[in-house]
């Protein structure tokens, strides 16, 4: 299989972490910059977004939650609580990504886009409602469920991009619980600093 990705996408990182946690091997990594709309990415995904998973038979999947569910479907059965946690993590990532993008690419000397204030308000509310029980504990050898991985990736992305919000609005016990995920092998291997090396294959 081929996974199209870049080094700072939280959506692509979720797929890498799922592959590592569920021991899915032989994934070739194709590094692209989706903002430049490269032809090889557009040929399989007209939206020019990452991640994109191209299967061995040539079929293509894009949108991170679809890819993650496909990769882990043989290993997990999801409960309602897990679906809720998965949705929470997905909305956190998408809202944070929108906030960061709008802030970064806003022209200077103009009134800030109203969505910037709105996304920040939503993120504050969401972080403030999280409890330590939203991120369950797992042993070192046990693979967390997909919903917990999604939420942990979301919170880690917020820590990376919007650390002031995390420190101000996320409960210390949730930050402590997040640190146990950040120490997992799959998380350590997929930080932006590590991914900038841009290895060709995913391996444990």
Layout of secondary structure:
Layout: E1 2-5, H1 10-21, E2 28-31, H2 39-42, E3 52-54, E4 60-62, H3 64-72, H4 80-104, H5 114-129, H6 146-161, H7 163-169, H8 172-182, H9 185-188, H10 192-195
Parallel strand pairs: 1-2
Antiparallel strand pairs: 1-3, 3-4
Structure description:
One of its GO terms (cellular component) is cytoplasm. This is Glutathione S-transferase N-terminal domain-containing protein. InterPro entries: Glutathione_S-Trfase_N, GST_Omega/HSP26, Thioredoxin-like_sf. This protein is α+β, with helices and mostly antiparallel strands and 204 residues long. It contains ten helices and four strands, in the order βαβαββαααααααα. It has a four-stranded mixed β-sheet with strand order 2-1-3-4, covered by helices on one side. α1 crosses α6, α4 packs antiparallel against α5 and α4 runs parallel beside α6. The radius of gyration is 17 Å and the shape is globular. It starts with a strand and ends in a 9-residue tail after the last helix.
